[in-house]
Specification:
- By secondary structure, the chain is an alpha/beta fold.
- The protein is 33% helix and 20% strand.
- It folds into 2 domains: 5-80 and 142-263, Metallo-dependent phosphatases (Purple Acid Phosphatase, chain A, domain 2, 4-Layer Sandwich); 82-140, no CATH class.
- The chain is globular and about 50 Å long.
Amino acid sequence: MNNSFNVNTFAVVIEANEQGRDFIVGDIHGHKKRFLRALQSVYFDKTKDRLFCTGDLIDRGKDNLFILDCLREDWFFAIRGNHEQMIINRYELPLIAPDSLNPDIKTKFDAAENHQLNGGRWFDNLRSSLAKRRIYQNLSVLPYAITLQTKFGDIGLVHAEVPEPLDSWSEFLKALASDSMVREEAIWNCVAIDSIYHVAKLKYWEAEFQDEPRFIKDIILTVHGHSFSHEPVVHGNQVWIDTGQITGELTILEASQLTEMIKEER
C-alpha cells in the first residue's frame, strides 16, 4: 500500500491509492460498534483499502481508546476535529489567563470544563497521567486538513468547513498556516452548512431560503463532519457526512461515490 505523503504542521497531502479503495467516514465519536459495522458494510480490506475520518474520533461513545488505537494502523487516517482540539487545549492553553480582565482568554481549566461538558469525562477517568499525555501528543499532530489525491481529482478533508471568504483550497491551506482564526473556524464553524440545511430541525431550508451553491476552487470536492444530519448534505462541491449521532449509523463513502454526489450540483 502506498502511504507516502508530504507533511507540514497543518495540512497533509496523501498520494492516490494504487492498490485498493479509499473511503471517507463521518465522525466516529468513540463508537466501536458503529465503526465496525461501517467497515463491514463496504467489505473493507485492511490490506489494500484506506479509511479517512472527518475528525471527532472521540467523546460521547465508550470506546474512545479503541478508536484512538486505530491511529497506529497504516490504513487509518484522520483530520483534527473540535473534540480533539478540546484535549489539546487542556495542555496548550495557559494555566492562568495573562489578562484576567479579558473573559475571552481561556485557560486549561476552561478547556477541561468544556471537554467534560461535551463527552470528555472518560479522559478524566483515566488513571495514568502518562496515558493522558500520550493521547494529547498523538492528537496534537493530527492535521487540520488532508488533500487526498484520487483518479477523479483531489478531495479535501477539513472537519467543519472552509471558512469564508476563502474561496479556493490552495488559499485555505495557506491561511491555515498563518491565521489561528482560520484554524479555529475550520474545526468549529457551522456557517456553510447553515446556508442550506437547518441543523436544529435536521432538514434542508426551503429552496427560496437557500444560498447559491458554493464551489471551493482548486479541489474537486470537500468533505466535512461536525454538523449533525440525518443524511449526507451536499452544497456546491461541499459534502457533510456526520450522521452517526442522529441515525446511529456512520456514513462511509468511497471517493467515487462522493464525486457522483456533486455532479448534479454543477
